[in-house]
Amino acid sequence: MNRLIFLGTGDAMGVPRVYCDCLVCTEARTTGANVRLRSSVLIESETEDFMIDCGPDWRKQMEIRGLRFIGTILVTHAHFDHIGGLPEWADACRWTGNRGRLYAPQEVIDTILRQFSWLPGHLDLIPVDQGALLGGWNIRGWRVNHGKNGYAYAYRLEKDDFSWAYCSDSIGLNDAEILPLHNLDLLVLGTSFYHEEAEYATRSVYDMLEAQELIGRLQPNRTVFTHMSHDVDVTRNYGLLEGISLARTGMSLPLE
Fold first, then answer.
1. What is the tens place of the pLDDT at every residue in 48-106?
2. First-to-last CA distance in the chain?
3. Which residue, 176, 210, 172, 174, is CA-closest to 191?
4. Are the beta carbons of 102 and 124 closer than 8 angstroms?
């Protein structure tokens, strides 16, 4: 069975934020519904399991799932909250005697190597600019606008008759960037706030109100919001459009 598991659903700072006593952070420290590690997902398939992104919570995410090793990780972009766990993954490869396979666009690989030049000692870094096949999924990525933070990549994954996309870090997508998001069974989209009031030029990820406008154009069968800050309370009913839900840590969805 093909399954998508949300290992982390938080923005770059996670929830709770250590300095914060807001209602969401307080709830996360008590009942814990709003605890959010940095955004990452695990894709389970009959032939090969792989992750998307490897942030600084990678070790904890692996421990929570009871995993001792993962051989393949697909990376969306080279910001710390998406690659901060790479040294620990490489160390796991070293100690277990396995070579990991890191897939990313070449320009993302180049940026990663400027930060962690020693990774090729333990990982094969494989460009996906011409697409990739992982776990039976045909994968293609494309650049998306990440606002003041530059750019990231989104991925469309297709297998049999099921198509879904992972777009965790984007805002204000143009028509060309939106095109691969049409005709989806599932869209996983980053929305850091319900309604972000900061000046638009300073922002980097959709808020939920903006995302709903995009979803109205795309009409995916189902949408799950991820990459959420401590502005978002997953126990609250936001009155979102039908077919939209909020990701929770450990949530599992069938991909078929």
1. 999 999 999 999 999 999 999 999 999 999 999 999 999 999 999 999 999 999 999 99
2. 8
3. 210
4. yes
Distance in angstroms (rounded) separating the CA atoms of residues 178 and 122? 36
Which residues pair with residue 38 across a beta bridge?
A: 10
Show Cβ contacts of residue 7 under 8 Å, excluding neighbours closer than 6 positions. 37, 40, 41, 42, 51, 57, 61, 64, 65, 249, 250
- Sheet containing strand 223-226, edge to edge, reads 132-134, 137-145, 151-159, 162-167, 186-190, 223-226, 244-246
Sign of dihedral through CA atoms 99, 4, 108, 159? positive
**118-157, pLDDT tens digit by residue?**
999 999 999 999 999 999 999 999 999 999 999 999 999 9
The per-residue pLDDT for range 167-222, each reduced to its tens digit, is 999 999 999 999 999 999 999 999 999 999 999 999 999 999 999 999 999 999 99
- Please say whether the structural domain 3-254 has been given the CATH code 3.60.15.10: yes
Tokens found for residue 133: 């096949």
Domain ranges of the chain: 3-254
Q: Is the pTM of this model over 0.90?
A: yes
Angle between helices 58-65 and 86-96 (to 10 degrees): 60
CA angle 125, 131, 133 (to 5 degrees): 80
